[in-house]
């Protein structure tokens, strides 16, 4: 039943001890090195967007991309072919975008105009409302031609398909973990990237599409790059644990019996006062998120996933006992396996407790006993934390302090070594705009990484803003401004 789910996601070991020799190998004669105009370490959405934009605009360039795992997409992690009929999808990481400013719990508002324009205008992918039951929300999800969940990875796959059409100008290398970066010895000399495999690559420019902990690990093996110390901006973000839990029922009872297709239950996903230290889990769930399909003639026979929880930090950590994998960062909890049965029994009991009052009000039969007798066939649990190889966390926040102002973090981090052609793009350093138009503390969205990549492209590679996004929206919400006048002018929703 789950053969498609498990295919291609074998766990890999962490960095082997001998990999520490890679920085020394990176000092070998340059004739033995691979060469590339531009090298990208990390095949997350920011790295792929950077490559897609650059090669589309600069036909004379070549670009080499290196990824430590066996897949691209980073924390956009879509699983497909799920369920007994193989027709369900689940996003174990990032999953939505906002094409207009939208209020959501825990944020002043969220607006992701670059991702929205990329999905809607540049790639022309079908999309629909993430929560159809909330008329005030402009959150969107990517769907297929039938309106079913296609998975957020679709937009990254679309860019990758175009990159592969560039032939020899673009190469993607899996199972290549970056361990060192050697700076250019003099202006015009190449930057040299060393990998755990022993591979070394000399490039005129290097983009590091890496979050905080993996990047700091690379810098630890890059002594020559750090003659002036570690740039404070690269240590300013703080990683957060994050968990998602999708529970599969052949009878989607929350829909079939309670008609719950929209809204939330449990505590707020960003409520850090929740301890979640009991023997039963506490949930922060959503009825509209999990992919369900309704097969009856009247749409009443529904099956599929309930998003039982999606939360961060301490409330997430209850699930560490049940997260058996760190690479890949998700576990299949299967009822036919003793550990899976134990986990699913606890999860089912907790879900029943959350819905007992509603079930007791159903007329005509004992709905509580009916649901209590059910059991989920399986669940998908993703846990992104410091122990997750290559990621080191789910999302990031900005540490407070006097070294780096959070409004300047992204622009300082995107070219952290002023005299080197080394760039950084990742959600850990990028941020969404606040109500005042300034970059704030809300990292964790694909938009944050793509906006950093976009500003690197226009600021350091000479690209013009893309034509597929409104010019004033781009100026207000995408472009990084340096002048005080521009910073004061920016903001709010007036240009959105």
Automatic annotation (TrEMBL):
InterPro entries: FAD/NAD-bd_sf. This is Amine oxidase domain-containing protein. It comes from Prymnesium parvum.
